[in-house]
Amino acid sequence: MISLKLFAPERGPWARSVYNRALFLYLNSAMSTSAKPVLLSGIQPSGQLTLGNYIGAIRNWVSLQADYDCLFLLVDLHAITARQDPAVLRQRCRDFLSLYIACGIDPQANILCVQSQVPGNSQLAWILNCYTMIGELNRMTQFKDKSRKNSDNINAGLFSYPVLMAADILLYDSALVPVGDDQKQHLELARDVAQRFNGRHGEIFRVPEPFIPPVGARIMGLQTPEAKMSKSDENEGNTIYLLDEPKRIIKKIKRAVTDSGAEVRAAADKPGISNLLSIFAAVSGRTVADLEVDYGSSGYGRFKTDLADAVVAFMEPVQARYRELQADPAYLDGVLAAGARNANARAEAKLRQVHDALGFLL
User: Fold this and answer.
1) Which one of the listed residues 5, 36, 184, 231 is annotated catalytic?
2) Per-residue model confidence as pLDDT tens digits over 15-30
């Protein structure tokens, strides 16, 4: 092991330079010894986490954490592309962290941290802005969609959002990034930027690969089953939130859109009942085909009643664990502090490598 005490920073500029180089080599070596590939994912701490977030993302994270070196970010820098109430944003970071852990993410085995507590994310984003073409950003469909929805706040951050996402991914040498259909374009941009930078400066960044979640992980809205369930939906009846009370869950499911006819079966022309079958299968561990056999001709009433009971039972242990964690804010702050320390150590090593390649003074 390299002894960093030999190069104490207070010994002058030359010693600091040697110290910085030794620190970089040590951290880079330490990072490269992990046999597990790095997997990174994150969610904006805005709105409220939904059953769709759990089934489509967080539950996949839980199953992956034993086999990958995982970083799970609360991407608050991304969140401020829309206006946020500061007090609410702070609380949601702690709420989301509590729910991550309550859903099964182990803070001892993974890095859980807030994006803004790792300055390297923003620093690398600026550098990558200089390697991203305007034409590439102009083609981002999510920017076009969000601009239509937020016509009074089309800011530069919203435009360069994919570059910050690329920085999040590349800063930690992520090998795999779980992506849904709405993020595939952003990951492709991250790959292009990494290859462009590497082509000029050598193999600095690992080029990430997409991790495609299992089929059936996409949960749609209860009132608009043609669109994905969203944690920022203005229509609360369209979404089941992880912290919804049982009575509220039951009410939302009983009011969920179904389709013409009364047959419980999944089909392209029955988006409402198909979505409810997907939810039932996800929370019960049964297959859609099995559920179709049990409920096919019994009508929607019994099906919805049993689905509501299954969702309530599924959420109960998560909500109980969430309440325990919320009662211990010191523990939550400790988890975030440890995550920030670990993430910053990795970011520091990668940034020094990038700065060296660019000719910045170290």
Assistant:
1) 231
2) 444 434 444 444 444 4
